[in-house]
Amino acid sequence: MKKLKRSAxxxxxxxxxxxxxxxxxPLTTFAQRYGAAxxxxxxxxxxxxxxxxxxxxxxxxxxxxxxxxxxxxxxVSKEHALVFISxxxxxxxxPDRILPGGYLYMSDLLGQxxxxxxxxxxxxxxxxxxxxxxxxxxxxxxxxxxxATGAELNLPVVLVRRDHQVTEGSxxxxxxxxxxxxxxxTMTLSRRALKEKSxxxxxxxxxxxxxxxxxxxDLLAEFDAKVAGVGVLVESGEIxxxxxxxxxxxSLATLTVVDAKGKEIKVEPGNYFSIEKLVSSSVDx
Length: 285
Description:
Keywords: DNA-binding, Transcription, Transcription regulation
Structural class: alpha/beta
CATH topology of the largest domain: Rossmann fold
Protein name: Pur operon repressor
Largest sheet: 6 strands, mixed
Shape: globular
Organism: Paenibacillus lentus
CATH architecture of the largest domain: 3-Layer(aba) Sandwich
Order of helices and strands: HHHEEHEEHHEHEEEEHEEEH
Distance between the termini: 45 Å
Number of domains: 2
InterPro entries: PRTase-like, PRTase_dom, Pur/Pyrimidine_PRTase, PuR_N, PurR_Bsub, WH-like_DNA-bd_sf, WH_DNA-bd_sf
Number of strands: 12
CATH class of the largest domain: Alpha Beta
Family: Belongs to the purine/pyrimidine phosphoribosyltransferase family. PurR subfamily.
């Protein structure tokens, strides 16, 4: 790469870091890339670090030593998170989203990359300090959210199938109960898709009682894997806490009212802020 002026180098370095979250980048990489001395690169990184932190864009961690370098950790400020979640709740509260049977139409929102990227950054903020090997979700609606979160955490995504595909090779299948009618379903995961003893972050677009997520938890047990966390875009507020199959999860929005006859939907912020507060308190202590 040709040698750049410092102003141009700062812009290019910022772009480079933003596109590689949670990736350790040696100083020699920048020095060789821009034809600059390490001392100049260190000064540039100090400027970028200050801007990231002051603007609530994230943190820039520096690791000393021969194997050291810098690592960009995406973080979303509480102010930005509040604005985004409020907008998400407003979009979800549109009356024309009510489907027959009292279901909520969300596919258009799940198909918006910009919206999913913002949601992924919020989940990456909560789970940034946890030891995670991969992201898991069930096909198909949760896929955009899982990939957005995986991109921000620099982690691969594992897809659980509802039907076994011959192209997946040998697989593990389990039955699980999901839905208001307590229907019995099957989910399957290729043996090659997940290493044993992995630490997995489970993502889902919607949670009612948590049957599908509990199914993934049970499936992980077959691989001797651990649940590192659970992230949900929208949870149902109709289910009492004690009726849920799991208690440890993070939600961005809570669906509190779906009145098909009166064409009314009410959506409130989920438990994101209370969980974020608990995580901050534990880190500070």
